[in-house]
């Protein structure tokens, strides 16, 4: 049997259980209020850090727990089951910290210690107002200045930008050179030249804190270059397969919660003298969502297994993200339908999960970009 969970250690299982407890006791009762108030739950990130959820993959050398990718996947699935937006914010903080610790040339011990406690929040900034899917087209520039760099440009749609103090920022060092010129820098919000913009207001996902910032003659020190030109683009692309996989896992978690909510309601609610699920059409719709969920889980677990082993997960990650987003969108809408108007109430998670599943169609590469990966693979495989 294909079961990636058998590889989890006792420590990893305990961390996943902690994430589940935090999600149920802390996130679930607050998530809708965050959404209704368009509120970025800054304190919740601190509390999640205190619960030991922000440094799962951070190496033990940096004070982290050094757990594997599958443990991280399961932990953040458990949180996404209650609120994908908060889960996504926390995992972006987690990943930014892990990468800064891994790639920094200078001494970042104090910074990592502050990030582990949630005093400083991290984010990773690729997207710009003029470049999303076409990452190689970014216009933020990094110009050599003595032994440092001067950065200028704008970033948009960056998770945690509402509050982030430590940014992994991608910039072009040689305009016109495409991906070969892209490098990654550690950028700090406290320094002159960093101008935060108001976070975006959009449907769903307030806890993601997505927004933007401008860099106006921002000076980065030499040792703040995290990835040199060319390697920056490759590092971003390497990390994105893991991200696509956990976004797929979050979609599975949301659909799973939706199916449970709808099934519980529809076994009680009676229409025309019978529980809703005694009507075959409704029962079959729910069964279809359950089958889709099974398939999405298998694709996701396959990708997770490859990511954990350090293999080439490009194709597996593209398949699972595309499919999991699609079935979550359809399945969550079908679950609402099954419950009648009741399913729309914000006392249930369905509407929030449905909107957040739509966010997942864009984060870490849109559905069309996944299709590009899959389509290109087919062309290469079958071209003469
Ligand atoms: C909630 C949220 C959080 C995010 N967090 C981050 C973050 O932390 N850091 C970060 O850097 N970015 C982040 N993003 C940005 C995200 O990565 C982009 O939204 C995504 O890359 C798509 O870019 P775009 O929205 O600019 O769409 P565009 O690139 O403008 O694309 C427009 C449309 O064209 C489609 N398209 C693209 N390429 C092709 C093609 N070759 N053929 C056909 N159609 C195509 C797209 O799929 C889309 O439907 C976030 C986005 C959201 C919604």
Would you kindly provide a written description of the structure presented here, covering whatever features stand out?
This protein has 384 residues and is an alpha+beta fold. The protein folds into 3 domains: 4-116, Acyl-CoA dehydrogenase/oxidase, N-terminal domain (Butyryl-Coa Dehydrogenase, subunit A, domain 1); 122-232, Butyryl-CoA Dehydrogenase, subunit A, domain 2; 239-382, Up-down Bundle (Butyryl-CoA Dehydrogenase, subunit A, domain 3). The chain has 10 helices and 10 strands. The strands form 3 sheets. The protein has a 4-stranded mixed β-sheet with strand order 1-4-5-8. Helix 7 runs antiparallel to helix 8 (314-338). The longest helix has 38 residues, at 231-268. The model has no long low-confidence stretch (mean pLDDT 97).
Write a short abstract of this structure.
The protein is about 50% helix and about 15% strand. It is an alpha+beta fold. The chain folds into three domains: about 5-115, Acyl-CoA dehydrogenase/oxidase, N-terminal domain (Butyryl-Coa Dehydrogenase, subunit A, domain 1), CATH 1.10.540.10; about 120-230, Butyryl-CoA Dehydrogenase, subunit A, domain 2; about 240-380, Butyryl-CoA Dehydrogenase, subunit A, domain 3.
């Amino acid at each position: 049997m294909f079961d990636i969970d058998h590889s989890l250690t006792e420590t990893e299982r305990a961390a996943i259980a902690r994430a589940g407890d935090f999600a149920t006791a802390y996130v679930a009762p607050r998530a809708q209020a965050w959404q209704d108030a368009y509120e970025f739950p800054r304190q919740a990130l601190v509390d999640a850090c205190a619960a030991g959820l922000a440094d799962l993959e951070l190496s033990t050398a940096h004070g982290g727990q050094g757990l594997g990718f599958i443990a991280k996947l399961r932990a953040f699935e458990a949180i996404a089951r209650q609120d994908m937006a908060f889960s996504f914010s926390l995992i972006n903080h987690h990943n930014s910290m892990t990468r800064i610790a891994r790639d920094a040339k200078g001494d970042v011990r104090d910074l990592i210690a502050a990030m582990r406690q949630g005093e400083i929040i991290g984010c990773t900034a690729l997207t710009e107002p003029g470049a999303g899917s076409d990452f190689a087209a970014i216009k933020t520039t990094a110009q050599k200045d003595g032994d440092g760099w001067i950065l200028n440009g704008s970033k948009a749609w960056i998770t945690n930008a509402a509050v982030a103090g430590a940014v992994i920022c991608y910039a072009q060092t040689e305009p016109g050179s495409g991906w070969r010129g892209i490098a990654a820098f550690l950028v700090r919000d406290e320094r002159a030249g960093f101008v935060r913009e108001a976070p975006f207001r959009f449907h769903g996902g307030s806890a993601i804190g997505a927004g933007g910032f401008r860099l106006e003659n921002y000076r980065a020190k030499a040792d703040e270059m995290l990835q040199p030109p060319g390697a920056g683009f490759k590092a971003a692309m390497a990390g994105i397969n893991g991200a696509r996989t956990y976004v797929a896992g979050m979609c599975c978690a949301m659909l799973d919660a939706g199916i449970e909510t709808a099934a519980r309601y529809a076994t009680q609610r009676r229409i025309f003298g019978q529980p809703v699920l005694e009507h075959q059409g409704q029962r079959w719709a729910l069964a279809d969502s359950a089958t889709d969920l099974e398939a999405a889980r298998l694709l996701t677990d396959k990708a997770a297994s490859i990511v954990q082993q350090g293999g080439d997960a490009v194709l597996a990650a593209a398949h699972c993200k595309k499919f999991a987003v699609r079935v979550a969108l359809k399945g969550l809408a079908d679950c609402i339908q099954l419950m009648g108007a009741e399913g729309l109430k914000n006392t249930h998670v369905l509407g929030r999960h449905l909107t957040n599943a739509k966010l997942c169609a864009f984060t870490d590469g849109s559905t069309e970009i996944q299709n590009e990966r899959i389509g290109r693979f087919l062309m290469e495989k079958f071209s003469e």
